Amino acid sequence: MPINLHYDDYLAVITIDRQESLNALSRSLIQELGLAIDEVAKSPARALALVGAGNKVFCAGADVEGLLDRGFWAEREGIRLGQDTFAKLDRLRVPSIAVLHGYALGGGLELAMACTFRVATTSGKFGLPEVRLGLLPGYGGTQRLPRLVGESCALELIMTGRMIDAREAREIGLVNDVVEDGDAVAIAKAFADRFVRHSQCASLLARTAVQRALDLPLAEGLRMEADLIVQAFQTEDAHEGIRAFLDKRSACFTDR
């Protein structure tokens, strides 16, 4: 199976394991990925980690050999499958973390950008090289990259197809952190420990507010933020958090 799902304590882990093809994204792999994300959505996991098998690559992108024989409608359907599958990460109730060791290129980088967070190791190399094939990113790269790094920087990376290292990726805001190479699951858990103990209700509402802000004028965004914080005030977690603060103790959240 090119997609493996297992659980480590509170963390769901999806591993892309197609090492003979540098973990490239075939149609069947994307379908299996979507099913795995659906399973995580039904689980009690508090965070999801996406990792690539092996120590050389997270995901080298789309399976290029499979592109030549596609007709118009097959290509359209394939793009829609990739976009819809990656968008499941946006809707997932728990945050997702892509651990990027080695190469994350093309569709592999687009998958990482669909995650809530990205943690790179020092060996990380990133790029959207589709222009070199006479193409452009089609799994959300033209939409998510400018939201992460700004329009000018995104256009430069997409139109040149150049590759950047982990240091530059951190400087431009493409990744949230850079760490030494190591076990991918341990890296994900170390990052998740920063937020996973907080109220899941509050975290989900905060993610919703930030994601919606990208598509709303400021005045509408402020109204939406007010509505969401009122929702947060109605939760048991908010009452517990306020009481714990006043009592000078750690909060015990129940995600209700």
Written overview of the protein:
By secondary structure, the protein is of the alpha/beta class. It has two domains: 3-192, 2-enoyl-CoA Hydratase, Chain A, domain 1, CATH 3.90.226; 200-247, Lyase 2-enoyl-coa Hydratase, Chain  A, domain 2 (Orthogonal Bundle), CATH 1.10.12. 47% of the residues lie in helices and 16% in strands. The protein contains ten helices and ten strands. Strands 1-2-3-5-7-10 form a six-stranded mixed beta sheet, sandwiched between helices. A four-stranded mixed beta sheet has the order 4-6-8-9. Helix 1 runs parallel beside helix 2 (72-91), helix 3 (107-114) packs across helix 4 (141-149) and helix 4 (141-149) packs across helix 5. The longest helix is centred in the first third of the chain and has 20 residues, at 72-91. It starts with a strand and ends in a 9-residue tail after the last helix. The mean pLDDT is 93.
Give the topology.
Layout lengths: L2 E6 L2 E6 L10 H16 L4 E6 L4 E3 L12 H20 L4 E5 L2 E3 L1 H8 L2 E5 L3 E3 L13 H9 L1 H10 L3 E2 H7 L4 E3 L4 H9 L7 H14 L4 H16 L2 H12 L9
Note the main attributes of this structure.
256 residues; 2-enoyl-CoA Hydratase, Chain A, domain 1; Lyase 2-enoyl-coa Hydratase, Chain  A, domain 2; 4-stranded mixed sheet; 10 helices; 47% helix
Q: Kindly report the CATH topology of the largest domain.
A: 2-enoyl-CoA Hydratase, Chain A, domain 1
- Net shape: globular
Radius of gyration: 19 Å
The CATH H-level homologous superfamily of the largest domain: 2-enoyl-CoA Hydratase, Chain A, domain 1
Mean of all residue-level pLDDT scores: 93
List the domain count as a whole number. 2
Provide the low-confidence segments as ranges.
none
Major sheet summary line: 6 strands, mixed
Q: Provide the β-strand percentage band.
A: 15-25%
Strand elements, count: 10
Q: What's the CATH C level of the largest domain?
A: Alpha Beta
Family: Belongs to the enoyl-CoA hydratase/isomerase family.
Pfam families: ECH_1
Protein name: Crotonyl-CoA hydratase
Keywords: Lyase
